[in-house]
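Holo prediction. Input below; ligand is S-adenosylmethionine.
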Amino acid sequence: MSIAPDTFAFVADLVTRRSAIRLEPGKEYLVESRLGPLARERGLGLDEFVRRLRSGAADHELATVVEAMTTNETSWFRDVAPFAALRGHVLPLLRDSGQSVRIWSAACSTGQEPYSILMALADAPRTVEIVATDLNEQVLGRAREGVYSQLEVNRGLPAAMLVRHFERVGAHWRVRADLRSRVDFRRHNLMDGTPPGPFDLVFLRNVLIYFDLPTKRAVLDRVARVLRPGGFLVLGAAETTLGVHDGFERVEAGGAVLHRPLPGAARAAAPGLLPTPARTFPVPVAPPPARRTDPVPSTPQMRGLP
Ligand SMILES: C[S@@+](CC[C@H](N)C(=O)[O-])C[C@H]1O[C@@H](n2cnc3c(N)ncnc32)[C@H](O)[C@@H]1O
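Structure of the complex:
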């Protein structure tokens, strides 16, 4: 089956307008494989399904199409280093204002990222608050449920973490309630401002790759605004601020590469690019978990990179 050019053009335009995800020509196969099942559920062929969307569809139908076109690939402790460094190296670099360490896991998919952060910081000497967001309501529903198949659990979750933080539910594993209750999962589109800050750490991993350059810059600009002074951005292993936004410096901590906003970073976006103003949306504040009294972890090591 191959889709009509105007079917592809409509879907690509819809997805870019609503999510900033680019669908270049050549990605027709992706539209077929992601939207084919939606069309079949409605007893339609793909071109007919899209024709009906074009002639006037409810907003939720369009949102379903956009969600179906997102790529939600994720795993536990993805790339290891950012999580391994969190407690012993990154946490001690953050200014201790006496408040909780606030973390935003942006584009969190099915939740492996925020839960990995919490597991890595489980015995940390500071209280951690985490807001985890994604555009896709379906993956957020899964994240809130915290139920994972054996196959999903096998993707990067150490056995000790499984034993400590999960319980068996039939053939599946569920994140224990204490951990689940500590993540505030919210729908949020990275095109639309940020959750209320400030944050000490922003995990923005493996999502900028789907956006064009101006969108990457605008998103990084908003992240720079919402980070506390001395806070850090954590990108995906294949992502960088170099050539995208010159308001960040690279810092290595315990093998993890972090990005720290330079003073005035939010204004450092390339000339000619007007970053969209930072907007916030209301997020109810979850009660902070009990303050821990564990001993302070090992000495931080930091090396500035050129
Ligand atoms: C590949 S996953 C990355 C998950 C996780 N951060 C990781 O690194 O494993 C990309 C996620 O970005 C989300 N996404 C795509 N466009 C978005 C947007 N405009 N706003 C918010 N989330 C978006 C998708 O729904 C998807 O869950």
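The radius of gyration is 20 Å. That is the main takeaway for now.
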